[in-house]
Design a protein that fits this description.
Elements lengths: L1 H6 L6 H14 L19 E5 L25 H15 L4 E5 L8 H13 L3 E6 L6 H10 L3 E5 L12 H15 L5 E8 L7 H10 L4 E8 L17 H12 L17 E9 L2 E4 L4 H10 L10 H12 L3 H17 L1 H5 L4 E9 L9 H5 L3 E5 L2 E4 H6 L1 H6 L2 E6 L2 E6 L4 E2 L7
Parallel strand pairs: 1-2, 1-10, 2-3, 3-4, 4-5, 5-6, 6-9
Antiparallel strand pairs: 7-8, 7-9, 10-11, 12-13, 13-14
Helix pairs in contact: 3-4, 4-5, 7-8
The structure holds iron/sulfur cluster.
């Protein structure tokens, strides 16, 4: 740790952070407390969603929102600020907060910027999940200046965007969004819901993301789940995490991908693989599990900045040069990877990285309590953090429930999201 501290930034207040990590570790079922488990070892949680509006300007066939979403009023900004505070108390600094909705860009833009700034100033990492329609270059630049860490654009055929019949056609939209974000200090992510109608387009999507890995750092595939207000009510038996993983592998052209090296929460919830890219050649970075486990332990307090992969890579290499183990074992690993992409390196092609992530949300009618207990993706509610799968299944209950505004003149006041009124007064927010 002392060597790490000399050459790398580390989180502040380590004793407090250790306490929060221990709490996360102990909240996991014992069989998931493994050396490759990220929760409780390096992260207190994967991500916490902060829903700042329930409204959306699209109506996806697989939408996770519920029947009242379009009608309920936005929570007052002080309630949002209070939730940010509670996330920090529960999970600590460095946590990724997904500012979401509905589509968060439908919230007043000055409020959206203030929310992002509050998260950033609280020492956490704000991320914006949007369909991109209202995410102009100017707004993204303003959000980046306020501390936005990454932007995740959700673009796919479930959105019924007119003039775009398939994923191939939607690449025009993706390209436009990439240009909007290009050059801003933001990590750029694309989310795609995979369903029976686009499963066979996954390989071409993967190749598209690899071609744009100068801007795009991560592509997340969500497997079709039956939840929310969407009108496709049946899950195809062919659309599974394994089916998606196989199509990713086929597209990148490697014999196998190390989907199981990193575990975040429950193994049935998601899989991830990280690739180093040199031009169109790729190397799987997670093939050596013991090395990854040691990395997880030794870098447990180091916050990496995925907005700037080069800086992060340089920091890790610097740290490696300070330790004989990493020089020997890590060096051999690195040489092996460089050898596998030597032709592209020789041609001096562009170097980057790409993470592929597969999220396997549960159907509302088939929630698995074991997965809920070991969830890594929570939503902050008035009742505290709740698993996203459970929240989606019970969304109506959560979004219609009056929210406490604290005590005023000896009485507790509530904001009613259905009417937009504060209980006990006639004031409208
Ligand atoms: S939201 Fe659902 S699928 Fe995702 S980590 Fe939590 S329980 Fe698992």
């Amino acid at each position: 740790m002392s060597t790490t501290r000399r050459v790398l930034p580390v989180h502040e207040k380590l004793a407090h952070r250790e306490m929060l990590l221990r709490k996360s570790w102990e909240s996991l079922d014992p069989q998931f407390r493994t050396p490759n488990q990220v929760l409780g070892r390096r992260s207190t949680i994967g991500c916490v969603a902060l829903e700042i509006t329930q409204r959306c300007n699209l109506d996806c066939t697989l939408c996770y929102l519920s029947e009242s979403s379009q009608a309920v009023k936005d929570l007052p900004i002080d309630v949002i600020f209070e939730r940010i505070k509670r996330i920090r108390e529960r999970y600590g600094t460095g946590v990724s907060i997904q500012v979401t909705g509905g589509d968060p860009t439908l919230r007043r833009h000055d409020e959206l910027v203030a929310i992002v700034r509050r998260i950033s100033e609280s020492g956490m990492r704000p991320s914006l999940l949007t369909n991109g329609i209202r995410a102009t270059r100017a707004l993204l630049a303003e959000l980046a200046a306020a501390g936005l860490f990454d932007v995740a654009f959700h673009v796919d055929t479930t959105q019924r965007r007119s003039r775009y019949p398939d994923e191939q056609a939607l690449n025009a939209v993706r390209e436009e969004y990439i240009e909007r974000a290009r050059g801003l200090k933001l990590a750029v992510i694309f989310n795609t819901t995979v369903h029976a109608g686009n499963l066979e387009e996954v390989p071409s999507l993967v190749r598209f993301f690899l071609r744009h890995s100068d801007v795009v750092g991560m592509a997340s595939f969500q497997v079709h789940a039956v939840t929310g207000r969407g009108d496709w009510r049946e899950r195809s038996v062919h659309v599974t995490p394994d089916a998606v993983a196989e199509r990713v592998r086929e597209a990148v052209g490697l014999r196998a991908l190390a989907w199981d090296t990193a575990l975040v929460g429950h193994p049935r919830c998601h899989q991830a693989t990280m690739l180093a890219t040199v031009g169109e050649e790729v190397a799987d970075v997670l093939t050596d599990r013991p090395l990854y486990e040691r990395f997880l332990e030794e870098f447990r307090h180091v916050p990496f900045d995925r907005r700037d992969v080069r800086v992060t890579a340089r920091q890790v290499i610097l740290r490696a040069f300070a330790d004989p183990f990493w020089i020997a074992r890590g060096g051999a690993f690195l040489i092996g990877k460089l050898w596998s992409v030597r032709k592209a390196l020789w041609r001096r092609e562009r170097i980057g990285k790409m993470t592929f992530f597969i999220h396997n949300f549960m159907d509302a009618a088939a929630l698995d309590p074991e997965r809920l207990r070991n969830c890594s993706f929570m939503v902050m509610t008035d009742d505290g953090p709740v698993s996203m799968c459970e929240h989606n299944a019970r969304r109506e209950e959560f979004i219609r429930k009056p929210v406490s505004l604290g005590h005023h003149a000896g009485a507790e006041r509530f904001f009613d999201p259905v009417t937009g009124r504060i209980a006990g007064t006639i004031e409208t927010v």
